[in-house]
Automatic annotation (TrEMBL), chain A:
Source organism of this protein record: Roseicella aquatilis
Residue ranges constituting the Acyl-CoA dehydrogenase/oxidase N-terminal domain according to the UniProt record: 13-125
Keywords: FAD, Flavoprotein, Oxidoreductase
Residue ranges of domain Acyl-CoA oxidase/dehydrogenase middle in the record: 129-226
Cofactor(s) listed in the protein's UniProt record: FAD
Name of the featured protein: Acyl-CoA dehydrogenase
Source organism superkingdom: Bacteria
Keyword Flavoprotein recorded: yes
TrEMBL record, chain B:
Domain of life (superkingdom): Bacteria
Gene3D superfamilies: Acyl-CoA dehydrogenase/oxidase, N-terminal domain (1.10.540.10), Butyryl-CoA Dehydrogenase, subunit A, domain 3 (1.20.140.10)
Family listed: Belongs to the acyl-CoA dehydrogenase family.
Protein species of origin: Roseicella aquatilis
Domain Acyl-CoA dehydrogenase/oxidase C-terminal: 176-295
An example molecular function term from Gene Ontology annotations: flavin adenine dinucleotide binding
Cofactor: FAD
Region (Disordered): 142-164
Sorted UniProt keywords: FAD, Flavoprotein, Oxidoreductase
Residue stretches making up the Acyl-CoA dehydrogenase/oxidase N-terminal domain: 11-96
InterPro entries reported in the protein's UniProt record: AcylCo_DH-like_C (IPR036250), AcylCo_DH/oxidase_C (IPR009075), AcylCoA_DH/ox_N (IPR013786), AcylCoA_DH/ox_N_sf (IPR037069), AcylCoA_DH/oxidase_NM_dom_sf (IPR009100)
Protein name from the UniProt record: Acyl-CoA dehydrogenase
Length: 379, 331
């Protein structure tokens, strides 16, 4: 554990007004959010909501003003994220762009790409999808086979991506593709590149896949001779693996890693007053929530200081995933069909289903723990 | 770095060096046989550690609770071979109540729990409501058998030699809150130590021709353990900071949380580190149990997870769903 640091951070004083503004906004915007909307939270997709969030300057908050960004601090952004997630806001239409695609373009994109994409992410207009997983490549992502071949002026893509959240509603995806064969089976991380792909380009077929909740949450995407111009290669050809893993590090550093099921705790609390076992269970849940929040804040603080807290972020994600995943079942033990309001029961059912994904998306628990184990020095 | 950060860093280094040089399994075993670690205690006193929390104008180092947590974590990393934490708290309470701290070991009495090394104490300190009480002389009635096997004794009922009113920020349960914080911090430190020991062991012990740390099943367990260790560390630091900002009473939620999170982590991680050490860790000879038994002791002492969880849970239920998130973020 040597070198592992979680220095406590406060949200900045100027964040108090921001938080108040968010609470007022979310109370109004969320008046009619159903249990399904709140339970689905960051997979939920609501363009109108995202555009309003963009209008208020809450997307791309830390990016340079030259690209429409707010030039605010990572901790202020943290406040926005945690307020949204705590109420289960349907953030899916801007979430990926704000968290992953935008930062990637900012860091590695060409000047042209930054000017083209970032301002439209900031305004909540452009929705992004993550094109990593394939039918035969999940955890073993580097084995992916969807390929981009060089053709005059660009690249020609053939293959298949799967589980791509909301791709059927998105505008662009950042796809990790094979641009040259791996030199040998052990070096499959080489020869991959990242591309900005227009989800409506000709040759793309997007087939929604119904999920266990009954929603069309993710998709299968078939690429059939899809042309992508040279100008939409992101970063360096052949360096897609390093780029994509750095992108996943952004994903892991977010506060959503413990908050996904908090809306259920909030909704259920009043009903539990008459339940004798509730104080202990609720106390344990709150003790962890408060601690996880401080862990997340520490990670946000390190990001703000320009550090890359990869090890710390991995740990927070792991502990946070366990927490948010267990919560629906933990509360179930305290609920009573005869007493608990139907809406709360409904949310509990939805979260029980959705919670399965918490330890899958962005890399499974087992893969994450493998990473942590290596960081611990286990070989 | 501010002056207090400097002071904390210097003190921590002193504590680490002292414990690395002078403590170890032999000393811990001697403790368990009832042999008082005289030399180590004398050195801790020479460094002024027992009065570290006493304000400077009263002859102490003027450290805060956050600093104390860091010191207690360091103690925990060495399985806390001396009852320094208890003595620090007792001295702080006396000073806050306007009573001149006594030299020598001060025992800390929390509720009906026995006093660690009470038989060696120059005096025993307790709180009752907002009052701090000092009872001179050692506690002599031997306490029940414990996980740690270290001596712990009950003070005979007696007339206190001094009483003082604590400032409001300490609240009516100052000894309990400070004791819980101490135990949580020691657990957090001990967790770091057992994780390190276990990673080392997993990288050295070979089966099937390779280090067991190469097996995924073992890796998954230790990764889980690492998350719990990190959570406990953050929980205690957060509680220490809250006590500095709002007093012990005002930090009830954070201290309770720290005790819950550290206590849960102690249970989870003790199971994991023993599983990985297997039979070797089940022996008396291997030092692992010197740490795990103390973690179990500290998780029970000064309020187990359940008691603390109930308190904060009951308050949250009373406050209702609409205040849950605002209350959480106000901390
Ligand atoms: C709701 C949801 C949304 C998603 N959204 C997206 C998206 O937008 N874009 C995208 O690209 N992907 C997305 N995914 C896919 C996700 O990233 C994959 O599910 C994940 O990477 C695991 O891949 P897999 O499902 O093929 O499982 P597999 O890799 O087949 O794993 C199956 C099981 O085996 C275990 N396993 C596999 N390899 C190992 C190993 N080496 N050691 C130990 N255990 C192992 C896994 O942990 C898992 O338990 C989404 C998934 C879900 C559930």
């Amino acid at each position: 554990m040597a070198g592992l640091r979680f220095d406590l951070r406060d949200t900045p004083p100027e964040a108090a007004a921001l938080r108040a503004e968010l609470r007022a906004f979310l109370a109004e915007a969320g008046r009619n959010w159903s249990p399904l909307v709140r339970g689905y939270s960051w997979m939920g997709f609501d363009r109108e909501f995202s555009r309003e969030v963009g209008r208020r300057g809450w997307i791309g908050m830390t990016w340079p003003a030259a690209y429409g960004g707010g030039e605010r601090t990572a901790l202020e952004r943290y406040v926005v994220l945690e307020e949204m997630l705590a109420v289960g806001a349907p953030v899916g239409a801007h979430w990926i762009g704000d968290r992953q695609s935008g930062p990637l373009i900012l860091r590695l994109g060409t000047e042209e790409q930054r000017r083209e994409f970032l301002p439209r992410i900031v305004s909540g207009e452009l929705a992004f999808a993550i094109g990593l997983s394939e039918p035969d490549s999940g955890s073993d992502l580097a084995s992916l086979r969807t390929r981009a071949e060089k053709v005059p002026g660009g690249w020609r893509i053939n293959g298949r991506k799967v589980w791509t959240t909301n791709a059927h509603k998105c505008d662009f995806m950042i796809a990790l593709l094979r641009t040259s064969p791996a030199p040998d089976p052990k070096a499959k991380h080489q020869g991959l590149s990242q591309f900005l792909v227009d989800c409506r380009a000709s040759g793309i077929t997007i087939r929604p896949i119904l999920d266990l909740v009954g929603e069309e949450g993710f998709n299968e995407i078939t690429f059939d001779d899809v042309f992508v111009p040279d100008s939409l290669l992101v970063g360096q050809e052949g360096h897609g693996w390093e780029q994509a893993t750095a992108e996943l590090a952004f994903e892991r550093a977010g506060p959503e890693r413990y908050l996904s099921s908090l809306p259920l705790l909030t909704a259920a609390l009043d009903d539990l007053r008459s339940e004798p076992a509730a104080p202990e269970t609720v106390g344990r849940l709150l003790a962890r929530a408060g601690t996880l929040r401080q862990m997340s804040l520490a990670v946000a603080g390190m990001l703000q200081d320009g550090k890359t807290p990869a090890r710390e972020a991995a740990l927070v994600k792991d502990v946070g995933n366990d927490y948010e995943q267990a919560l629906p079942d933990t509360l179930r033990d305290l609920m009573d069909p005869a007493r608990t309001p139907a809406e709360v029961q409904e949310m509990q059912r939805i979260m029980t289903m959705v919670a399965r994904s918490y330890s899958l998306r962005g890399g499974t628990r087992e893969i994450l723990r493998g990473i942590i184990a290596r960081q611990l020095g286990l070989r | 770095m501010s002056d207090t950060d400097d002071l904390r860093a210097i003190l921590l280094e002193q504590v680490e060096r002292l414990l690395s040089d002078r403590s170890g399994p032999d000393l811990l075993r001697a403790n368990e046989r009832g042999e008082w670690p005289d030399a180590l205690w004398a050195e801790a006193e020479a460094l002024g550690l027992p009065t570290a929390l006493v304000p400077e104008e009263r002859g102490g180092a003027g450290l805060g609770w956050g600093d104390a947590v860091a010191v207690w974590q360091a103690l925990g990393r060495h399985a806390s071979p001396i009852p320094l934490g208890e003595s620090m708290v007792a001295a702080a309470l006396l000073a806050a109540g306007g009573i001149a701290p006594r030299p020598g070991l001060l025992g800390l009495a929390v509720g009906r729990e026995p006093v660690a090394w009470g038989r060696r104490a120059a005096a025993v300190v307790m709180t009752s409501g907002g009052i701090v009480l000092l009872q001179p002389g050692p506690a002599t009635r031997q306490g029940r058998a414990s996980f740690s096997r270290e001596p712990a004794d009950h003070a005979a009922p007696g007339v206190p030699a001094a009483e003082g009113r604590l400032p409001d920020a300490f609240g009516p349960e100052a000894a309990l809150l400070a004791g819980a914080l101490l135990n949580a911090a020691r657990i957090a430190g001990a967790l770091e130590a057992v994780l390190d020991m276990t990673v080392d062991y997993a990288n050295t012990r070979k089966q099937f021709g390779r280090p067991i740390g190469g097996f995924q099943a073992v890796q998954q367990l230790l990764a889980r353990c690492a998350g719990e260790v990190a959570a406990a560390g953050v929980a205690v630091a957060h509680a220490g900071r809250a006590a500095d900002r709002r007093g012990l009473a005002g930090a009830e939620f954070e201290i309770a949380s720290a005790k819950v999170v550290a206590g849960e982590a102690a249970g989870t991680c003790a199971a994991i580190v023993h599983q990985v050490h297997a039979a070797m860790g089940f022996t008396d000879e291997h030092p692992l149990h010197l740490f795990t038994r103390r973690m179990w002791e500290w998780r029970d002492g000064h309020g187990a997870e359940r008691a603390w969880a109930r308190r904060i849970g009951a308050k949250a239920l009373e406050r209702g769903g609409e205040n849950l998130w605002p209350d959480l973020t106000a901390r």
